[in-house]
């Protein structure tokens, strides 16, 4: 069973519908007690970094999610769910994240902000997440901030938007992407299925 963390993220329902479309059992998690029996965890995200962290804390989900990722259990972060894995975001000055990985989340300083629409992902390292997906495939993005991980070896994908930044990571059983597979059509569905199959 896949658990999808609910802290009020805008893309929660579309992520759940994507797994339902794939015929995969998934349920929405609104409290830590509901994580019992969960085998894989998804942290979706659209919205403000600081407010989302606060919402997770209010629902008592912050520590359980942080401990899940720190224990290297099967995990997928999507968009803000990727950014929150790191130490801090530049949003509103400085906002602390889950801090599982070292690195920060700066704001784009060029182009239209946020980045909205389709962009390519260069596959910088081999990963089962890319099975059946061509290098430089297009995925749907919606974000004004991006990650700068200290450990560049965890990067498996990069995207250019005036600056070349890490748009997909893999560290053990932890995967996360900056784009929205649930809004990326056939290729996005393939990526979600790949993650489930890992």
Itemize the secondary structure elements and their pairings:
Elements: E1 2-5, H1 12-21, E2 26-29, E3 40-43, H2 49-58, H3 62-70, E4 75-78, H4 80-83, E5 88-89, E6 95-96, E7 103-105, E8 115-123, E9 137-143, E10 148-149, E11 155-160, E12 164-171, E13 174-177, H5 185-197
Parallel strand pairs: 1-2, 1-3, 3-4, 4-13, 5-7
Antiparallel strand pairs: 5-6, 7-10, 8-9, 8-11, 11-12, 12-13
Largest sheet descriptor: 9 strands, mixed
Stretches where pLDDT is under 50 for at least 5 consecutive residues are none
What's the CATH C level?
Alpha Beta
Rg on CA atoms, Å? 15 Å
Across the major sheet, the strand order is: 2-1-3-4-13-12-11-8-9
CATH topology: Rossmann fold
How many domains? 1
- Structural class assignment: alpha/beta
| First-to-last CA distance | 14 Å
Work out the number of β strands.
Answer: 13
Order of helix and strand elements from N to C terminus: EHEEHHEHEEEEEEEEEH
Quote the beta fraction.
25-35%
Average pLDDT taken over every residue: 95
Count of DSSP-assigned helices: 5
Active site: 79 (nucleophile), 180, 182
Protein name: Imidazole glycerol phosphate synthase subunit HisH
Domain Glutamine amidotransferase: 4-195
Pathway: Amino-acid biosynthesis; L-histidine biosynthesis; L-histidine from 5-phospho-alpha-D-ribose 1-diphosphate: step 5/9
């Amino acid at each position: 069973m896949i658990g999808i963390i609910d802290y009020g993220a805008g893309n929660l329902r579309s992520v759940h519908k994507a797994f339902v479309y794939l015929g995969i059992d998934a349920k929405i998690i609104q409290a830590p007690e509901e994580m019992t029996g969960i085998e894989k965890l998804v942290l979706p995200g659209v919205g403000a970094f600081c407010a989302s962290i606060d919402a997770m804390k209010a629902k008592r989900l912050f520590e359980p999610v942080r401990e899940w990722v720190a224990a290297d259990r099967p995990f997928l972060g999507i968009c803000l769910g990727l950014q929150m894995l790191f130490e801090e975001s530049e949003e509103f000055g400085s906002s602390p994240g889950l801090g599982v990985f070292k690195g920060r989340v700066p704001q784009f300083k060029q182009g239209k902000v946020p980045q909205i629409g389709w962009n390519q992902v260069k596959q910088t390292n081999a990963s089962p997440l890319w099975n059946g997906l061509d290098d430089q495939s297009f995925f749907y993005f919606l974000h004004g901030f991006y990650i700068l991980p200290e450990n560049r070896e965890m990067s498996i994908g990069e995207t250019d938007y005036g600056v070349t930044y890490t748009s997909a990571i893999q560290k053990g059983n932890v995967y996360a992407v900056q784009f929205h597979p649930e809004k990326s059509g056939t290729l996005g569905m393939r990526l979600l299925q790949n993650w489930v199959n890992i």
